[in-house]
Amino acid sequence: GRKGGHKGRARQYTSPEEIDAQLQAEKQKAREEEEQEEGGEGATGDPKKEKKSLDSDESDEDDEDYQQKRKGVEGLIDIENPNRVLQTTKKVTQLDLDGPKELSRREREEIEKQKAKERYMKMHLAGKTEQAKADLARLAIIRKQREEAARRKEEERKAKDEAAMAGKRLQSLSLNK
User: Fold this and answer.
1) 21 vs 63: CA distance, rounded Å
2) Ranges of each domain in the chain
3) Cα–Cα distance, 24 to 54 (Å, whole number)
4) What are phi and psi for residue 176, nearest 5 degrees?
5) Which of 64, 54, 49 is nearest to 20 (CA)?
6) Are 126 and 119 in contact (CB under 8 A)?
7) pTM recorded for the entire structure
C-alpha cells in the first residue's frame, strides 16, 4: 500500500451550514456592539425583533458589514499606502448613469475611426474623393463600350432581318413563277 504524504492526513472541511451559522453569529455580535455604542438600547430589546431584523436586513448588511479578512499583521498595523486603491462597492441607487462618461483612449480612437469612415463614405457617394472620381470615369468608359456593343448588336440584327427578308422575297418570287 502506498501512503499519502504527511500534508494531507488531517484535513477537515467545514460544512456550508456551519459557515452560515458562524457568519450570522458574527453579524449579530457586530449589531449588539453597535447598539451598545449607540446607547445600550439593543441589550434590553426583544429577541424576536432581533431575529426578524436578521432575516429582513441580511442582504442590505452583507454589503455594508462585510470586511475582507486581513492577512498576517495587517490587522495589527494600520497601513497608509497612497498607491493602494480600496475597492468600494456601489449600490445601484448610487450609480450616476446621467453624468458624462469618460472614454478610454482606445474607445475614443475607435469612435474617431468610425466617424472618419462615415465622412469618407459621404464624400465618396457625393463623388468628391479621388477614388470616386476614378470609379465614375471607369463607369463612363464602360457605359460607352456597352452602348457601342448594343448599337452594333442592333445593326447586326437588322442586317440579318433584312437578309432573311430578302431571301424570303426571292423564295416567294421563285414560287410565284
Assistant:
1) 18
2) 105-176
3) 8
4) -75, -20
5) 54
6) no
7) 0.33
Q: What is the pLDDT of residues 56-115, one digit of tens each?
A: 444 444 444 455 666 777 777 777 777 877 778 877 777 767 666 788 999 999 999 999
pLDDT of residue 64: 46
What is the distance between the alpha carbons of residues 132 and 134, in angstroms, rounded to a whole number? 5
Task: Quote the cell numbers at residue 2.
Answer: 502506498
From residue 173, give the alpha-carbon distance in Å to each of 46, 47, 168: 129, 127, 8
Q: Is-contact 30 65, C-beta < 8 A?
A: yes
- Rounded to whole angstroms, the Cα distance separating 137 from 140 reads 5
**100 — phi, psi (to 5°)?**
-65, 130
Which residue is associated with the grid cell 432581318?
161
Type and span of the H or E element at 14 = none
Tens digit of each residue's pLDDT (9 = 90 or more) over 5-53: 666 666 678 899 999 999 999 999 999 999 988 875 544 545 544 444 4
Instruction: Answer whether 31's CB lies under 8 Å from 42's CB.
Output: yes
**How many CB atoms are located within 10 Å of the residue 30 CB?**
13
CA distances 127 to 117, 122, 124, Å, are 15, 9, 5
